[in-house]
Amino acid sequence: MSSSLQSTPNNPSHLSDLRDAAADARPTDLKKILRERQLARNRKACLPCRERKVRCNHQQPCQTCVKRGHADLCFYDQAPEPRSPRLIQLNQPATDLDHGNNNDTFSANPTSHDNRTSIPTPSLLGGNSIISVARLNSAQPQSDNERRAAFETGIFPLLGMNEASDSEQSPRPGRSDLKLADDQEMIALFSFYRDRVHPFQFVIDDLAEIEELVCSLVNRDTEVGQVDNHSLCLLHAILAAGAQFSDLNTAARVPKSREELQSALGLLGSFDLLWNPSKRLIQALLILGHVLQNDMNPRAAWILGGTTVRLALSIGLHQPATIPDTLRLMPGESQHLRLAIVWQDALLSLAFDRPPASQEMNLESDLPKIFPNALPSQVLNYQQAMNWLCHLTLRHLRNLSEGPWLEHCVLFFQDFRNLEASLAPHLEAHQSCTSIQELQEHYSLKLHRNFVLSTFCRPILSIKTRGSCSDEDYSRILGRFQTALKQSVRAFIKLRSMSSHATSSWAFVHNGLSSALLLSFIRQDSEADETRQIQAELMRTLTERSEEVGQFSTAHKKALRAMQALQRLAEQNASRVQPLGSSNERQSTSFPEGMDISFDPLNASQEQSMLSMDEWLRTFDFDAFSPLESYNFIMSDQVPPDTNF
């Protein structure tokens, strides 16, 4: 009886075995498979076509997206994933998860395999932690596209999980919606950069390749969408710099330059520069730094310069030889970029009175040797002389805070003399210039080197430094300081007389104006007439075109107004002590009639602040403040009380 019962097909144990066998043969997720097949039969349009309400052929990518140039955005809604038991148990101990799931289950101790003997420990990465949610979202994309976009753009970069860091290490193609200037305008702006900017800002060592790209775009051999973002950014930066030094009037030049500047900065908005630095990107950032300076925004240029230095350090540019896992450049390319970075950072930090950031790239091995008695084949050209000047600037700025100031000043004078003794003839004397280019190089270097020299001598104006120097040292350094200031102002006046584009350079304007302002605060009766003549000539040069004065930065406008007020006060004091018959002798040193800067180009709200500065300077006590404190007050962002510059 028992045997017959065991052979009966209705035996429950036999039914259980059949069910187990059927379960083993069934797919693991039948609902998911059926859902996918149903979606395949009833597939909806892709998201871009649904958004634009256009026809979609349901391919991947669809023909419409390919035609419109955004095939990378063509994707479809996915079915919501079923909630996995793993999501519910993420807050359980890691050993329980290992016991109930496969080896790919997230675990706090993935090396433990014997789950029955391990000690349960609470997981520090529960289901609500950022890493757990981010990993799950990365593995199983949700149907909520906004949530996924938030993860990709906000959370993933913080965790180092952004796909951009793992993508192909080359600049991505440019966006097809970007547009360049028309052919004629692009050629004109590029020519202005090549002829007027590049000879004095040696950022690009392969300008011929950029010009070849311009020709290819003009001939339509290359479309804008085929050019990578870094090259497009560099091209827009070049066009912005060319617009600043173009022959357009101020009303057209400034908007055009800012339009190209905005386009260049827009190409950096994706933060591709953080994931994938390149030579073209560093070149673009350097030129953008110059453009921001000349747009009278040195603070933004200084901030951008710090980013440029960090990017250069990240690719090992401060190393003379290429190191593994960095951007591979030829030694000549790396050297050229280092020198360009040091050039910009040294002059901007010195003029803007901020600490430099490129000390690690200030390598003397990149520079040619200098000889006190240099042969004709050993003299320095303009580029080499400027590189040496910037190198000495960073070297002595680093040591300036260590030890007595007077000792560092003597060492700087010695290095400065060696540099001047190694200059090419046309850089040393204007009589040796045989071309317009050599003449511009002569006065440009003269302006920069005298400004650097005067800046290192400037602490002699402070009360603390004056007390630590002997009378002999004080007189010697003060005399050299005044001479450097006058030479700097005269060089700027000469550059301005040769070309109106000298006022388009923030560095030229700043060096000339700051030197003239410092001369106004140094009270030396024996040289007062010469100082007033230089200042009057400077004001006459600047006020020939008042619209250019309106484009100056606030600090430069304050300096102009301060010089006018100080000159007016000096004339009033001189008229009180001089006989009536001698007033005509001093008339040539005052500002010409009607040449007072009314600052009409400024905003109307600033006029009252300029009048307040006149009142402040009229009651200024030279005995209470040192000339250096007065200079720093005017050239800084601070304003007198109850004023709004």
UniProtKB/TrEMBL annotation:
SUPFAM superfamilies xref list: Zn2/Cys6 DNA-binding domain (SSF57701)
Basic and acidic residues bias spans: 16-25
Under Gene Ontology molecular function, one entry of this record is:
zinc ion binding
Zn(2)-C6 fungal-type domain mapped to chain residues: 45-76
Q: Which UniProt keywords apply?
A: Metal-binding, Nucleus
Write down the SMART domains for this protein, in alphabetical order. Answer: Fungal_trans (SM00906), GAL4 (SM00066)
What's a single GO BP term from this record?
DNA-templated transcription
- Residues of the signal peptide: none
Cited InterPro entries: UbiX-like (IPR004507), XnlR_reg_dom (IPR007219), Zn2-C6_fun-type_DNA-bd_sf (IPR036864), Zn2Cys6_DnaBD (IPR001138)
Name the Pfam families for this protein.
Fungal_trans (PF04082), Zn_clus (PF00172)
- Annotated region (Disordered) at 1-25, 93-123, 573-593
Q: Which regions are flagged for Polar residues bias?
A: 1-14, 102-121, 573-591
Protein name (database record)? Zn(2)-C6 fungal-type domain-containing protein
